[in-house]
Amino acid sequence: MSTAFNEMPTLSNPFETITASNESAAKALQAIATETTDYSKQAFEKCRVHFEKLMGVKKFDEAIQLHSDFAKAAYEDFVAQATKVGEMYSNLAKEAFKPLKAASPVMPWASAPPSNAPVAARQS
């Protein structure tokens, strides 16, 4: 029984590996926070400008068109921002696991590529 325990893969230096993983995660989270803050400031400014334009409109039809254009642009901006932040989170996960993967390439959970097979096919 003790030989099975001795054959388990180990990290070369767990403290350094975890520290490196945490450092890369902290940097990525800081970048995500900065990106989110910048987007929020820009969105608020666009809303302020839109409200000022609405205050100057004389006809109801113009207000509807102005608001429709604003809603469309806001939606497109949001989708672009969500895609960008999603990619940043994906990169965060990849970077956070790099030190673990390098420290112990024997661990299948740290080095196996994700499966593209449907869930039902993987369960069988």
Question: Can you describe what's shown?
Answer:
The chain is built from five helices and no strands. It has helices at 2-6, 14-55, 60-103, 108-111, 119-123. The model has no long low-confidence stretch (mean pLDDT 80).
Shape: elongated
Radius of gyration: 24 Å
Helix content: over 70%
Structural class: mainly alpha
Question: Which residues sit in consecutive blocks of at least 5 with pLDDT less than 50?
Answer: none
- Strands, total number: 0
Largest sheet: none
- Average of per-residue pLDDT values: 80
Q: Give the percentage of residues in beta strands.
A: under 5%
Distance between the termini: 31 Å
Order of helices and strands: HHHHH
**How many alpha or pi helices?**
5
Concise overview:
The chain has 5 helices and no strands. The chain has helices at 2-6, 14-55, 60-103, 108-111, 119-123.
Q: How is this fold's topology laid out?
A:
Elements lengths: L1 H5 L7 H42 L4 H44 L4 H4 L7 H5 L1
List keywords for this structure.
single chain; 124 residues; mainly alpha; 5 helices; elongated
